[in-house]
Amino acid sequence: MADLETFREQTRAWLEANCPPEMRTPMRSEDDACWGGRHFKFQSEAQEQWLRVMGEKGWTVPDWPAAYGGGGLSPAETKILKEEMKAIGARNPLSSFGISMLGPALLKYGTEEQKKRFLPEIARGEIRWCQGYSEPGAGSDLAGLQTKAEDMGDHYLVNGQKVWTSYADKADWIFCLVRTSTESKHGGISFLLFDMESEGVSTKPILLISGYSPFCETFFDNVRVPKDQLVGEVNRGWNVAKYLLGHEREMISGMGLGSGTSKTLAQSLGEIDDAILAAEVALFDVDALAFAAMSEHFIDQLKAGEAHPAMPSMMKYAGTELNKKRHELIMAAGGSDALEWESERSRGGKAPREWLRTKANSIEGGTSEVQLGIVAKHILQLPGA
Amino acid sequence: MTLLTDDQRQLADMTRSFLAEEGTIKKQLRHWRDIGCKDGFGHGLWKQMAELGLTGLAIPEEDGGLGLGATEAALVMEEVGRNLTPSPFLTTALVAVEALKGTEQGKRWFPGIIAGETVAAFAVDEGPHHRPRQIALEARRSGNGFALSGTKQFVVHGASADVILVAARTAGSAGEAEGLTLFAVPRDAAGLEIENVTLADSSKAARLTLSNVAVDADAVVGEVDHGFEPLRRAMRVGRTGAAAEMVGLASGASTMTLDYLKQRKQFGKLIGEFQVLQHRAAHLFGEIEIARAATWKAAELVDKGDDRAGLMTHVAKAKAGRVSALAVQEAVQMHGGIGMTDEHDIGLYMKREKVLDALFGDSNYHARMVRMLAA
């Protein structure tokens, strides 16, 4: 314990000396997030410096092994780092699908060579990744995907189309599910990594109801992918995908917290003069604070290896439904102010655009219905599910 | 860290197997109900719980107890809830013990509680809703003690209790937290009239009428006029315990329902194959997990004496109340007609849930408190 106290003191001192003051202010919007990558335009020197110093220390991924660019910290030390960052309001130095999704999958399924090649770049925020899963005909029924990868000896030849590829137009590389065999639905899928600048890759943004276009359609036309960029075994990519989806669901479920952990919805809304809305907000706060307790418990369970493999589905379902409810209440409390789509005082229609964005929460990463089905089958063991 | 320690797991396992054997609905709840027992619980089981150390679980070690906290209490309460086991554990071993900690009255009553011979009750409510600040039962100074006059209701195990902790007003007026005092009133006090009331779940909760009940000055628990503090401490423990009992109850009802979904056939299929029922069952599963996490968190904060304990206790009681209500409603509905029969146990869960939700403040009361504290 004494060691942990020393670690806490050293961490506090290091953060104090190295976290720029601008990086200790709350993010104003999603645009303030730092994504890194080859073409990322930093918003400030402070943002660039914060990513660099944290990346050098491996603290963008504190619990990954130091050999792969991580911080090599124990779970207890990682928790302390997070607590100390929170204490000074330090921003997350890097938002990254490489960290939250691909990294854990590479740590488990990647070859030593792949780990050494890709993980340090992810840790330092040098490569921005996107995820090529869904296709026009394979959304919730993901295993129905058709994008084909033909074995050409030293490389695969990839042809097909992906959809809902988040930030594909800004990503450097893609981790992608492809069909290498048609003999079995789940058993013919492989997991490939490749450069988005490869010949034959093109992207097209999709405009959403929120007016934003974080998603793209992504097209592959005779894309050559070297064979050493296959993760895991050929035709066994479904295992990698499932593992990675678990991590994605953990990440998305965290969104249900919103600002609910430190600040309840009642606090952020202020005075409410409608009795029925006030009651709904009170009940929402009960749900949100209870879910925050569950999140803490769930994270501890995960770290201790005690979480049921299907628990991320439960968390994803509960967290995203909660987040949708939260934004419905924010809209109700805001009245006509919350309807302004473009105005100075509405900060460019923040409220309605965020409200609309949350509707995707219960669709992306597996719909709420898919998650409930997984819980029913794998945890409750109901028949025929 | 929100995971259980090895000791806590052992306690939970021990209690689970003990109550699954001795605390069952058939041996306890139905038995005492069907013979019309005036206490609504078995003293034999209370004695067995004493032999396991459970009755003294929360009593400090220097007073002969195990000196454990709200977290351990929650683990026991969850098993009580799962089996609908009637016992004075919540009101005596948790609530009364918390109020009596560090007092002379504690020294008097703790040995009997540890031995499983003493039952204590807690009298707060004066109307159909829990409103502790509105306490109006009057305690007038009289001679070297006090004279208590007024009424209480929903006093769980009131007619079986050896001592009743009565929250009374010694100063100020209804609505104020200051001016309240807790008194330990023996059951045989002159002027104390106890009406033994049977509730919907066949448990017993008395209605008290006090007419100039004379008590000595040493009947005061804690300090005169400053009874809100021990009352609040006891309520926190009681609410966390009741929340844990509801989590156990919800979990028990849900297990029974899942078993039924896996064996009942309609339209030539197991009803558990119907997606609409699967999704409702999966939703309920998550809600129960969340309610349990909230309850454990509340218990942890109570044990740490953390500032957020009050807020989290309200969250836990409100969440567990709503989740357990959902659990029993889904349980009876999914059981169909058989669930409406007295012969089947599932209806007993529904009746017990309603009583537990009301105990120490219902979900609406606690949601309102969350809003007050959060806004």
From TrEMBL, chain A:
Entry annotated with the keyword Flavoprotein: yes
Domain Acyl-CoA oxidase/dehydrogenase middle: 130-223
Species whose genome carries this gene: Sphingomonas rosea
UniProt-listed InterPro entries: Acyl-CoA_Oxase/DH_mid-dom (IPR006091), Acyl-CoA_Oxase/DH_mid-dom_sf (IPR046373), AcylCo_DH-like_C (IPR036250), AcylCo_DH/oxidase_C (IPR009075), AcylCoA_DH/ox_N (IPR013786), AcylCoA_DH/ox_N_sf (IPR037069), AcylCoA_DH/oxidase_NM_dom_sf (IPR009100), Mycobact_Acyl-CoA_DH (IPR052161)
Cited Pfam families: Acyl-CoA_dh_1, Acyl-CoA_dh_M, Acyl-CoA_dh_N
Domain Acyl-CoA dehydrogenase/oxidase N-terminal stretches: 4-126
Domain Acyl-CoA dehydrogenase/oxidase C-terminal: 235-380
PANTHER family: ACYL-COA DEHYDROGENASE (PTHR43292), ACYL-COA DEHYDROGENASE FADE29 (PTHR43292:SF3)
Cofactor(s) the record lists: FAD
Keywords (A to Z) from UniProt: FAD, Flavoprotein, Oxidoreductase
Entry protein name: Acyl-CoA dehydrogenase family protein
Family: Belongs to the acyl-CoA dehydrogenase family.
Domain of life of the organism encoding this protein: Bacteria
Signal peptide start-end: none
TrEMBL record, chain B:
Domain (Acyl-CoA dehydrogenase/oxidase C-terminal): residue spans on this chain: 226-370
Cofactor(s) the protein requires to work: FAD
UniProt xrefs under CDD domains: ACAD
Top-rank lineage group of the source organism: Bacteria
Record-linked Gene3D superfamilies: Acyl-CoA dehydrogenase/oxidase, N-terminal domain, Butyryl-CoA Dehydrogenase, subunit A, domain 2, Butyryl-CoA Dehydrogenase, subunit A, domain 3
Keywords: FAD, Flavoprotein, Oxidoreductase
Domain Acyl-CoA dehydrogenase/oxidase N-terminal: 5-117
Sequence ranges assigned to domain Acyl-CoA oxidase/dehydrogenase middle in this UniProt record: 139-198
InterPro entries (UniProt xref): Acyl-CoA_Oxase/DH_mid-dom (IPR006091), Acyl-CoA_Oxase/DH_mid-dom_sf (IPR046373), AcylCo_DH-like_C (IPR036250), AcylCo_DH/oxidase_C (IPR009075), AcylCoA_DH/ox_N (IPR013786), AcylCoA_DH/ox_N_sf (IPR037069), AcylCoA_DH/oxidase_NM_dom_sf (IPR009100)
Family to which this protein belongs: Belongs to the acyl-CoA dehydrogenase family.
Protein name: Acyl-CoA dehydrogenase family protein
Organism whose genome encodes this protein: Sphingomonas rosea
